[in-house]
Amino acid sequence: MRRLYSFLTSVVERSLPVTGVFSDKMRLFVRGRTAVFSTLMKDLEDRKPVIWFHAASLGEYEQGLPVMESVAQQYPKHQLLLTFFSPSGYEVKKNSAFANLPDRQAGAVTYLPLDTPSNARDFLDIVQPEMVFFIKYEFWPNYLKELKSRKIRTFLISGVFRENQAFFKPFGKWMTQYLDAFEHFFLQDNASAEALQSLGFSNFIISGDTRFDRVSHQIEVDNTLDFATAFCEDQLCVVCGSTWKEDDDIIVPFINQNKGTAKFIIAPHEINSDKISLLQKRLQVKTVLYSEMDINTVASYDVLIIDTIGLLTRLYSYATVAYVGGAMGTTGLHNILEPATFGMPIITGSNLEKFPEAKRLQQLAGLFTVKDASELSTILKKLLMDKNFRTQSGMISGHYVNSNTGATRKVLEYLEK
């Protein structure tokens, strides 16, 4: 089965340049992998030991960042390598992933070559890592086989196991043997522990989700943005983060029908000029783009659309209420913990199936789900007009984050032992 898998992966690798013709994202996916090995040889310092972190995309990078920075402090003589599978992670962080690390430890940021036997061998021949950390649920059989055969210490952090994964299906049972490559699993929850145990593994602890550690640090830094301060002017402000069209379909009617109730900052998930232009046309109130605003006049607008990346986390600090996108459709809910750490109520769509942290916060009454524009209008009006209700819900969100930190410390305690 592994040989068949490897053959099919090789076929996919050879056909990818064709797919790049039809998709900008696939073009980045292909082009970024053409220079991985030369980048590794150029950027990694000879004779300096390497610690390798791998993240599927931007969300997993953010999840692994507290561990990455803490491990760097614990092993100051090592250099770090960070790989991504997806362009949405690599393209955003290729120049800033190691911003908080000393220059001597900032090794390389690259794509991960596709999981063929030759790629795995060549990659590890160059990198020769002393330790490897995979984040959440990246499982590549050929890489794991090579890591195990070379006896390289390999860990899974913030691990998630679910019954819909290949390991639990007849066609994917063969992959289970490659989980032997992991020295230890640091799992998010009891459900993952039970699932992994059913596969015959006991080398795990339930450490929790390192994203709580990541977001909890955000409140300790300076989140000031002069343009946001000028725009909000101490008025109520709703920050709508990582929104898609399905989210716009319920947010826009509220804004148009409730002018003056609050200021709105909208940060779309995709920075696409055509889609942002369409959003502007649908809004019947004064709207300005971040790229076109004047800080001296920005306060006169009702809606500010953020047509750039990298600002959303700090923008949440200005929110009275946060709306987090993705759960109105099938794309998947985006990060609710970023706004929660600032202690505010959160509204999302109702598609929470794969997001236990959102389900739990909903149970606690710090998060509210909506199915349509009418439900959004009802809960958002209540949150904006009822200060006591808003304050209580916000306190629940903040406490939820604070009470779930500590996963990073458990990883470091294991390494120290």
TrEMBL record:
<feature type="domain" description="3-deoxy-D-manno-octulosonic-acid transferase N-terminal">
    <location>
        <begin position="45"/>
        <end position="213"/>
    </location>
</feature>
<comment type="function">
    <text>Involved in lipopolysaccharide (LPS) biosynthesis. Catalyzes the transfer of 3-deoxy-D-manno-octulosonate (Kdo) residue(s) from CMP-Kdo to lipid IV(A), the tetraacyldisaccharide-1,4'-bisphosphate precursor of lipid A.</text>
</comment>
<dbReference type="InterPro" id="IPR038107">
    <property type="entry name" value="Glycos_transf_N_sf"/>
</dbReference>
<dbReference type="InterPro" id="IPR039901">
    <property type="entry name" value="Kdotransferase"/>
</dbReference>
<dbReference type="GO" id="GO:0043842">
    <property type="term" value="F:Kdo transferase activity"/>
</dbReference>
<feature type="active site" description="Proton acceptor">
    <location>
        <position position="60"/>
    </location>
</feature>
<dbReference type="InterPro" id="IPR007507">
    <property type="entry name" value="Glycos_transf_N"/>
</dbReference>
<keyword id="KW-0808">Transferase</keyword>
<dbReference type="Pfam" id="PF04413">
    <property type="entry name" value="Glycos_transf_N"/>
</dbReference>
<comment type="similarity">
    <text>Belongs to the glycosyltransferase group 1 family.</text>
</comment>
<keyword id="KW-0448">Lipopolysaccharide biosynthesis</keyword>
<protein>
    <recommendedName>
        <fullName>3-deoxy-D-manno-octulosonic acid transferase</fullName>
        <ecNumber>2.4.99.12</ecNumber>
    </recommendedName>
</protein>
<dbReference type="GO" id="GO:0005886">
    <property type="term" value="C:plasma membrane"/>
</dbReference>
<comment type="pathway">
    <text>Bacterial outer membrane biogenesis; LPS core biosynthesis.</text>
</comment>
<dbReference type="GO" id="GO:0009245">
    <property type="term" value="P:lipid A biosynthetic process"/>
</dbReference>
<dbReference type="GO" id="GO:0009244">
    <property type="term" value="P:lipopolysaccharide core region biosynthetic process"/>
</dbReference>
<keyword id="KW-0472">Membrane</keyword>
<keyword id="KW-1003">Cell membrane</keyword>
